[in-house]
Amino acid sequence: MADPVTFSSDKGAYVRTNAWLAAFAMAVAMVVLWLIGNPYVWTGAPAGLAAIGIRAWYLASEELVATWEMTDATLTGPGSRKVALNQIQAVNTIGSFVQIVTKGGDKHLIKYQADPAATKAAIERAMA
Q1: Pairwise CA distance, residues 38 & 57, whole Å
Q2: Of 30, 42, 61, 85, which has the fewest beta carbons less than 10 angstroms from its beta carbon?
Q3: Which residues cross the membrane (predicted)?
């Protein structure tokens, strides 16, 4: 049996993902304020930034320690997440996330990967 492969969260990917999310939240907040006729549309930008910044700070201690481990037969994640490799139907990348879709329809995210394409390739190699 080969040594387990681990997929850990990357701090740089976490920061980049939340920066993009903050930019999106800022734009949406400004558009909403503009649509409702608020004369202070610019206040949407700091509101969106603050909302995502606080969320990112609050979740960092949990998200940055999340690790998935892959053996010859299973992919085990945080909590009670466990997927048999022969039950994986699809492996997708979504930004810095890798989505695992099982044959039963369950979906799992391996979040904040520095190189999601490499993570996907490693899982697909193990499945073959």
Answers
A1: 29
A2: 61
A3: 19-36
Please name the residue that has the structure tokens 């740089």. Answer: 12
Residue (of 84, 76, 24) closest to 49 by Cα position: 24
Total tally of structural domains belonging to the chain: 2
For every one of its 128 residues, what pLDDT tens digit does the chain have, with 9 covering 90 and above?
A: 568 899 999 999 999 999 999 999 999 999 999 999 999 999 999 999 999 999 999 999 999 999 999 999 999 999 889 999 999 999 999 999 999 999 999 999 999 999 999 999 999 999 88
Two tokens at 47? 């509101």
Q: Is residue 121 part of a domain?
A: yes
pTM (two decimals): 0.87
**Any domain includes 5:** no
Q: What is the CATH number of the domain that holds 120?
A: 2.30.29.30
Q: Do 76 and 91 reside in the same domain of the chain?
A: yes
**123: which 2 tokens?**
């899982």
| Whether the Cβ atoms of residue 80 and residue 98 lie closer than 8 Å to each other | no
